[in-house]
Amino acid sequence: LHADRVPVGLMSSVVAPEKPTSNTMGPKEVELILVKEQNGVQFTSTTLVAPATTQTNSSGEEDRETWGKKIDFLLSVIGFAVDLANVWRFPYLCYKNGGGAFLVPYLFFMLIAGMPLFYMELALGQYNREGAAGVWKICPIFKGVGFTVILISLYVGFYYNVIISWALFYLFSSFTGELPWVHCNNTWNSPNCSDWADNSSVSDIYKATPAQEYFERAVLHIQDSNGIDDLGRPRWQLTSCLAVVIVLLYFSLWKGVKTSGKVVWITATMPYVVLTVLLLRGVTLPGAIDGIKAYLSVDFLRLCDPKVWIEAATQICFSLGVGFGVLIAFSSYNKFTNNCYRDAIITSSINSLTSFFSGFVVFSFLGYMSHKHNVALDKVARDGAGLVFVIYPEAIATLPGSSVWAVIFFIMLLTLGIDSAMGGMESVITGLIDEFKFLHKHRELFTLFIVVATFLISLFCVTNGGMYVFTLLDHFAAGTSILFGVLIEAIGIAWFYGVDRFSDDIKDMIGQRPGRYWRLCWKFVSPCFLLFMVVVSFATFNPPIYGSYMFPPWANMVGWCLAMSSMTMVPLYAIYKLCILPGKLAYAITPETEHHLVDNGEVRQFTVSADLL
């Protein structure tokens, strides 16, 4: 008689363990007994042996797909959080708001709000193993906020994919001996086109550089539109580029994290390679050091301006990617015992360091442009699409081997954009298939439906007047609404589900409760910060503009309807839940698995505990 005890994973070819019916997580063991009988025939007897300790998952889903490797998850989170805004937004804010002094409010808000909220979403998704809506089984009345963030991610996808298609268009255009945005003698140029040398007198506001006209007249064809009420047909060139982007997204997502986790090995790492190469080239250019000095120059007097603090807080809110449901979706595919605390610290820190690092790359080239054309740095420094599709291509065009540098740069933009777009779409897909279980068996078809629907809506953004639609979506889709969504999320977890219980959940996963600092941030600091940001967002609202074009009132109304459509999911779902649940409000604020406690008069969310302090 010979007996061996081995993990079930090693014996999968011999015996198939029965699916456990309990709520336990972790490895099972099988006791395998080999008995040699007569005539050389061997028989096996197996017994399931429970391990000494088990981990409990609140959802009880044992068969949920998980990341192939831990690094797949980390790269996916980094790839999503590090996007185009890290290159075109943060460096300009830093330069405009006191250089190195801007890091003071930026790091302050990172510590009191950015990291705690990032950590909260990773832990929430990992423990409950559901998408943005499904996790709210912990407090059913707040499930509306899950649909809010899903809608926001969907809306952002309508225009974010268009940015990637612009980058693809530029990439194809770069495979030439001479880049098409160098001179003013092209068919798309207007009489107002003027090289920098002829345009050094900035008093003539009607002059436009070749790169600016290439973007607006050759790529966007905005000269053929009179405004948002005169869109025209989709441009076939941009439509083709958009179709390529959609196909890339589909085949990156159709099989779930098993495929997307491999794609990010390229899309999340390539930007760092390219940024390093561009920095090594940029610092060798004349005037580059002056640009970097302007980027880092410290002006602490700027810290007396409240606008500096508001812009730092806004940048934190949007740069980490909190509130899109992506962090919840990605972490829901982690193993239950994964150290989400360490992941939150690593990935949020890498995101901020990338923003800071990209500033050196951007301002080395801006300093070069300022030196080359003998104009002040603030005449070339800008943020947004104008930086990466006008100023930077213009700088690259003056370098030896400009076509090669252009190809490298636009490959970086593609990879920066594609994994962020993947994250947003994964938030929508995971959130909905976890909420509507029948979609699990049809993930490929449902993913196809989502990407095709996104493509059809995005066609409005690749028409002659598509830039106006793009600007409207960018202004309303994820502004105040996402701040509102994260605020409700923080209140739901900290004040209704309870910080103590949430801390216990984290202890179940990683073996230790979060420190007092994190609990205080979740309970008081982060909600107050978010409430302040929502108020500021409403108070400082300005209607969208594009250049000198003012949007008509009906367009602003459409924009507000878009923003409100996501925010109203919170009260609408709360009303719906109160209508369908029997009798007591307590049912709506108690985890679904504990409704029997309500019958006994135990509503733990409102139990006062000194453990927080």
Description:
- The protein folds into two domains: 71-194 and 206-580, Hydantoin permease (Orthogonal Bundle); 581-612, no CATH class.
- 59% of the residues lie in helices and 5% in strands.
- It has 23 helices and seven strands.
- Strands 1-3-4 form a three-stranded antiparallel sheet, with no helix packed on it. Strands 2-5 form a two-stranded antiparallel ribbon.
- Mean pLDDT is 86; it is low at 1-62, 199-204 and 605-610.
Low-confidence parts, pLDDT < 50 over ≥5 residues? 1-62, 199-204, 605-610
| Average pLDDT level | 86
Q: What proportion of the residues is helical, as a percent range? A: 55-70%
The CATH architecture assignment of the largest domain turns out to be Orthogonal Bundle
The total domain count is: 2
Based on DSSP secondary structure assignment, what is the total number of beta strands? 7
Biggest sheet features: 3 strands, antiparallel
Binding site for Na(+): 79, 81-82, 86, 319, 351, 416, 419-420
Disulfide bonds: 184-193
InterPro entries: Na/ntran_symport, SNS_sf
Subcellular location: Membrane
Task: Give the SSE layout.
Elements (H helix, E strand, L loop, with lengths): L1 E6 L16 E2 L3 E8 L5 E8 L5 E2 L13 H12 L2 H5 L1 H7 L6 H26 L14 H31 L36 H10 L16 H18 L3 H11 L2 H13 L5 H9 L9 H14 L6 H6 L8 H34 L11 H13 L4 H34 L7 H16 L7 H11 L3 H31 L5 H24 L5 E2 L2 E2 L2 H15 L1 H12 L4 H5 L5 H5 L14
Antiparallel strand pairs: 1-3, 2-5, 3-4, 6-7
